Amino acid sequence: xxxxxxxxxxxxxxxxxxxxxxxxxxxxxxxxxxxxxxxxxxxxxxxxxxxxxxxxxxxxxxxxxxxxxxxxxxxxxxxxxxxxxxxxxxxxxxxxxxxxxxxxxxxxxxxxxxxxxxxxxxxxxxxxxxxxxxxxxxxxxxxxxxxxxxxxxxxxxxxxxxxxxxxxxxxxxxxxxxxxxxxxxxxxxxxxxxxxxxxxxxxxxxxxxxxxxxxxxxxxxxxxxxxxxxxxxxxxxxxxxxxxxxxxxxxxxxxxxxxxxxxxxxxxxxxxxxxxxxxxxxxxxxxxxxxxxxxxxxxxxxxxxxxxxxxxxxxxxxxxxxxxxxxxxxxxxxxxxxxxxxxxxxxxxxxxxxxxxxxxxxxxxxxxxxxxxxxxxxxxxxxxxxxxxxxxxxxxxxxxxxxxxxxxxxxxxxxxxxxxxxxxxxxxxxxxxxxxxxxxxxxxxxxxxxxxxxxxxxxxxxxxxxxxxxxxxxxxxxxxxxxxxxxxxxxxxxxxxxxxxxxxxxxxxxxxxxxxxxxxxxxxxxxxxxxxxxxxxxxxxxxxxxxxxxxxxxxxxxxxxxxxxxxxxxxxxx
Length: 574
What we know:
Blueprint: H1 2-15, E1 31-43, E2 58-70, E3 73-82, E4 99-110, E5 114-121, E6 123-125, E7 131-133, E8 135-136, E9 141-142, E10 145-155, E11 158-171, E12 175-177, E13 181-190, H2 191-195, E14 203-215, E15 228-240, E16 243-252, E17 279-290, E18 293-303, H3 333-338, E19 347-359, E20 371-387, E21 398-421, E22 426-438, H4 439-442, E23 456-470, E24 473-484, E25 491-500, E26 504-512, E27 524-534, E28 537-546, E29 549-553, E30 556-560, E31 563-573
Antiparallel strand pairs: 1-2, 1-31, 2-3, 3-4, 4-5, 5-10, 6-7, 8-9, 10-11, 11-12, 11-13, 13-14, 14-15, 15-16, 16-17, 17-18, 18-19, 19-20, 20-21, 21-22, 22-23, 23-24, 24-25, 25-26, 26-27, 27-28, 28-31, 29-30
């Protein structure tokens, strides 16, 4: 707390002007805003699901952002505490976050042409396939860059960004930085705005390009690792009416790292060979939408596209880029927590197609209020590779081509949902999901002891979501069923949420692994919660059981151990 007060005081002393009356008007002292979040959990032992409390019995972590703004100037600090962090947090088990201190601080000055930031910042070039510095607090992922960023807008249609710095590695009474240096430049150009000065063009064209490099000293006595690794990207977009076409291609120089086995032999990937080759990736999306109808198609191909500022970092640490999964990000409990897909940056070929259609209201099929239908199909496959016997040469290990599809299916998701308003006070939704989940590749399915299981899981999921309006209050009921003969067997989930407008909400849920082949492990996972909202503040108290498994956001996952206990969460924005 002393560090927070000191940092805040420095901001006030440095940025606040002296109070001088000018023309009998009050001086502009600027404004301060921010947000706070606290998460605490009391753990109980539960030997049935192998839930082991930490020695402290209680986990507490939180943060507070303070942002000061005056004219063109913005500055801020974020105080963080992990005393200790909740079980399974953060994403990297090798680098636990611990202690309290300043986790983020910055100062930014902006004009119409220039935007300068010193300190910590987040940034994304294009789709993020070449660079994305971001935070996902629920996963414990934070790869903020600490350094210098300059954005220049020489024309309303042109933005150029340059940055230089080191990435946040983990937290030990304050953020620590990785060994590597990240450097990048990016340009985005609105071609239509440049050439169509009258603003009458119906078709809009956008192009962009990026170059990102990293530097890390080579201290390996056996291999000559590249100290400077560069990557470049080119992208283009075309929009006309409801039609949109977007594509981005990225190429990365040879980049031996822990994620592709460095250059040492790895018999699991190629007998007697390591990986010491360039990487590349392409992402293409085409969509069309009009009233009552929408369709989209996404195609992605990756090869050796893990890009980190430290060649020895774990899979969740110091990632320069971010590649989202080409799948639906399910929010319902069973598909979202049992078998979520994680992107395979070392190599995958993925496709996803979506259709949205609304049957007109008043028709026989649409009913009085209309009916919405959504269909989605996503698949991720292994790339087709040819092994190379080049230990005395380039040490590429293998060769492949973009969109060359191999024999192994990593993941498949077919789902269809039908949503309909039955009356002024009742809504209903039905969803069917068919999943194929290759756990030998994804390694996201765990048993009750937190151990990984092998093989491919085939599952069918049915969901019913009902919403009832009761005067000014609301009742929502979910019924979910997952059937499978693999892994832990079949599951059923029942959830009820009751909201008393405008402040109170209550939740009751139970998951039941009734189909487990081991009759002694057909456990229930009850959960209850209650919360209150007022203004910008929200507090929630919950109690329940949590099974071991994974928690994913956007294709990034972290392992969650089994737990049983009481949780309190408080958030506030001011």
